[in-house]
Amino acid sequence: MYTFLARRLLATIPVLLVVAVLVFLMLRLTPGDPAAILAGDAANTEQIAQIRTGLGLDRPIIVQFGIWAGNLLSGDLGESFYYKQKVTTLIAHRLEPTVSLAALTILIAVAVSVPLGVLAAWRFGSLFDRMLMGFSVIGFSVPVFVLAYILIWLISLKLGWLPVQGYQRLADGFGPWLRHLLLPSITLSVIYIALIARVTRASVLESLGEDYIRTARAKGLPELRVLVRHALANAAVPIVTVIGIGIALLIGGVVVTESVYAIPGLGRLTVDAVLARDFPTIQGVILFFSFVYVGINLLVDLSYVFLDPRIRY
Amino acid sequence: MHSAAQTGEVTLTPGSEGDVTLTPPGSAVLEVRELTIALPAGGERATAVSKVSFSVHRGEILCLVGESGSGKSVIAQGIMGLLPPALPVTGGAALLEGEDTTRASPERLRQLRAARMSMIFQEPMTALNPVMRCGEQLDEVLVHHTSLSEPERRAKIIATLQEVLLPDPARMFAAYPHQLSGGQRQRIMIAMALVLDPALLIADEPTTALDVTTQAQILKLIADLQARHGTGVLFITHDFGVVAEIAQRVAVLRLGELVELGAKDEVLKRPRHRYTKMLINAVPRLEPHGRAADTDAPVVLETRDLDKTYVDRAWFGKRRNVAAAKRVNLSVRRGQTLGIVGESGSGKSTVARCIVRLIDPSGGEIHLHGEEIARRSHGDLRPLRRRVQIVFQDPYRSLNPRRTVGEAIMEGPLNYGVPRAEALERARRLLALVRMDAGALERYPHQFSGGQRQRICIARALALEPELLIADEAVSALDVSVQAQVLRLLEEIRTEFDLAMLFITHDLRVAAQVCDHVAVMHQGVVVEYGAAEQIFLQPKHEYTRALFAAAPGRDFAFGRA
User: Fold this and answer.
1) Is A7's CB within 8 Å of B315's CB?
2) pLDDT at B345 over 90
3) Between B111, B178, B315, which is nearest A3 by CB?
4) CA distance B38 to chain A (A)
C-alpha cells in the first residue's frame, strides 16, 4: 500500500515533465507576440524589441526553457508578463473561487445524481427511469454557456432570487458566498448530474442482479438497506471513478462558467493570460491543473481500497 | 426498529420454547397447496410450477429433486416471496405455520424472512456481500428483526458461529467473505439463516458448488442443526446421492409438476413413476465398470515429472511459489481412458492445460507419441495442436455465441487446410455422430440446451481427428439424465476412433463409469495412481479413502433398477 503510494507519487514526475515541455513548446509555436501585446497599439518596433529583451524572449528557446525549468525545480513558476507578479501568488489568489465553485458543483451533482441513479435502477424500466435517462441526454447536450444564460435570465433577472454575477470571498460570510456561487454551481452541475446518474444507474442495476441482493432480501432487510448497503456499496467503484473524472473535467469547465458569471477564479485567469499571451502564467496554470489531475486520479485509486476490501495494492 | 418480535404473533426469544407450542411436534411448518406460478407468455410452457402440493413437517427434511428447469428453485422463491414480477403466483397457497406467504404484504414478508423462514443458496461466494464483513452481514439480521443491544447481538452471533463449527469465531466475525474458504462461507450463510431459529429452512442446492469432502461436512451440519432445533427443512437438489444422504421424504419434480412424493427408501428403492425410475437409473454407479484394458496398446501421452509453479511476486515482499502441480507422472494408452480425480485446487485442470500447452509447464516432460512437447515453441507446436483436443466444463461459455455451430465445428479443419466442402461434410458427419440434426449447422449456440451444446463441443473437438481427447469436467454442468447420454456418447466415440482419453472430474461416480486408470490428485500431487478396479475396490492412500467416504449416497446402489 505505502509502496504503491510512493510509486504513484514518483510516477507523477515524468507526467508533469512531459506536460511542462509540451506546454512550453506549444505556446512558443502559436502565433501572437506577448511583447507586441504588452507594448500596446502605439508602440514602435524598437520599443517592442526592448520589451522582448526585458522578458528574455529574444534568447534561444532551449535557454528559455532551461531557465524556466530551473526555477520550476525550486518551486518558482516565474513572473507574469502581464500582471508583473509571481505566478504562484496569482494562482494562490485565484484558487479560492475556483475550489469553492468546483467543490459546490460536485457536492450538488453527487447529492442529486446518486439517489436519482439508485432510484432509476430500482425502478428499472419505469416512467421515472425513462424520464431520468431522457433528462440525462438533454443534460449532456446543452452547452454550459447556453444553460448559464437561461438560468441567469430566469432566476436572477425574472425572479430576482440570486445575484447575476460576481463573487464574494468566504471570509466575508457564508451567506453571500453561497448566494453568489449557487447559480454557477447549479449550471455546471447539470452535466455531471447527467453523467453520474447514468453511471450510478448502470452500476447499481448490475449489482441488483447479484446473488447477495437475493440473500439480503431473503434476510428480511428493508428495501432501503438492500439498496444502499448492499447494491450501492458494491456499485461504488465505477461511481467514484466517474466522480473523479468529473472533478478533473470540472477544472476545464470552470473556464467558461467563470467568464459568464464574472468569477475571479483560475478559469478567468487562464482566459486572460491566453488573451495577453502571458506565457509564464499559462504555463503555471496548466502545470498546476495537471498536478491536480494526477492527484485526483491517485485519490480515486486509493479510495478503491476502502470501497472494496478485495482490492489491495 | 419494527420487528416481528414486537408484533406478538410469534415468539422469537432466543432459546425459549415459546414457538414449540404454536406448532406441535410433527405438525406441518410449511404446507404448499396447489401452488401455481406462471411463466411469461411465449415461453416453452405456460407455467413454471403447476398445482404442486406438499408439506414440510417440524423436524423433517424434505428433498425436492428435479433437473434444471423443473421449477424447484421457483417454488422456493415463491414460498419466500422472492419471485421476480415476471413470475407471478397465479394459484394455490404456501402456508407457513398457517399463514399464506404468497398473499402476505411486503412488510409482513420482511418480518417473516429470517425470523420464521430462512434460505441458503448454492454459491456461497456470490450469495454473500463481498464488501461487507461477515459479522456485519449477520448483525444486520439481528438489527432488523430484534431489539437486542449491540453486545447482546455480538454474543449471539459468536454463539451461532460456534454452533456452525467455524474455527475462531472472533476472526470469522471480522473477516470478509473472500478471505474464507467455500465451506466456511457456506457455514456463514447457514449461521445467518439460523441465527433467529426459524421454523423453516429452505436450502437451495447448498452443497452443489462445494467439494465432495466439504459437501459431506455441510450436509452433516445441516442435519445436526435441524435435529437439534427441530427446524423443518426444504432441501432442493438435483443430486440423488445427496438425497440418499439427507432426506427423510422425497418429492420429485418434472417440468413444474410433482410426479412422485414419498418416504426416502420408498422413492429411491421402489420408484413408481417412470421419470423417477429414469432419473435414479441415470445416477452412475460408484463401482468400476470392469472392462478389461489392453495393456499392449501404444502409449499416446506420457508426462514425466511435470511441474507447474506459479510465482506470486510482490514489489518488495518475498517471492512466493505456489506449486499447482508437482512431479506428475501419467500415461495414457490408445483406446483407453485415464481419469484424473480431485477436488478444486488439486491441480487436475492445471495438468490438463499443461498437456494442451494452454499454459506452459515449469518443468518436466510431456511426450505425445514419443515427441517431447513441453518445451516446444508455440510455432513448432502448431502441427501438433490438432492431435490433442479438449472439451471444457461449461458448454454455455465455451462456444462463441456469435458464430453458427457449423462455423464452430469447421473452423479447426479449415485452419489446417482442409477444403471447405470437405470440412462441411465432416461437420455433417460429426453432428450425426453426436446425434444431432444437420440443420443445427446454421443455428447459433444459444438455440440449444446445455446437453446439446456439449455434444456440439465434442463434435468440434473431433473435427480435427485428434489422437487424444481431454474432457475437463465435461459432464459436470449437465443434468444427470443428460450426463448419462453424454457419457455413453463419449464411450462410443472412444471405442469407434480408438481414442486415448484424459478424463478430468471431481465426481467419483462418473470416474467409475468411464475410466480404465485413475490418478487421484491432492494439492498438486498425484497421491494414488493405478487401475480403476484397484483404486475403487482397494484404495490405499488415506486421501482416496476420505474421498470415497465423503461421496454422498455411497451406501445406496444406484443405477441397477
Assistant:
1) yes
2) no
3) B315
4) 20
Render pLDDT for B152-187 as a digit per residue (tens, 0 to 9).
999 999 999 999 999 899 999 999 999 998 889 999
**Closest by alpha carbon to B184, among B134, B225, B136?**
B134
| Amino acid type, A287 | L
Q: From B175, which residue of chain A is nearest by alpha-carbon distance? A: A309
Q: β-strand B99-100 against B89-96: which pairing, if any?
A: antiparallel
Q: What one-character-per-residue DSSP string does B242-253 give?
A: HHHHH-SEEEEE
Best A3, A7, A207, A215 member to test B by mutation, with max B CBs in 10 Å, is A215
Q: What is the pLDDT of residues A277-302, one digit of tens each?
A: 888 898 888 888 888 888 888 889 88
Judge if ipTM > 0.85: no
d(CA B90, CA B36): 6
What is A95-307's CATH superfamily? Answer: MetI-like (1.10.3720.10)
- Chain A CB within 8 Å of residue B80 CB: yes
Mean pLDDT over each residue of chain B, to the nearest integer: 87
Choose the mutation target among B128, B129, B137 for the interface with A, i.e. most A CBs under 10 Å. Answer: B129
Neighbours of B386 (CB within 10 A): 16
In whole angstroms, give the CA distance from residue A122 to residue A43. 68
Q: Which of B393, B359, B361 is nearest to B472 (CA)?
A: B393
In the block, which residue shows the cell 432466543?
B14
B403 in A contact zone (CB under 8 Å): no
Residues of A at the B interface (Cβ-Cβ below 8 Å)?
Answer: 3-4, 7, 210-212, 214-222, 225, 229-230, 233-234, 236, 307-310
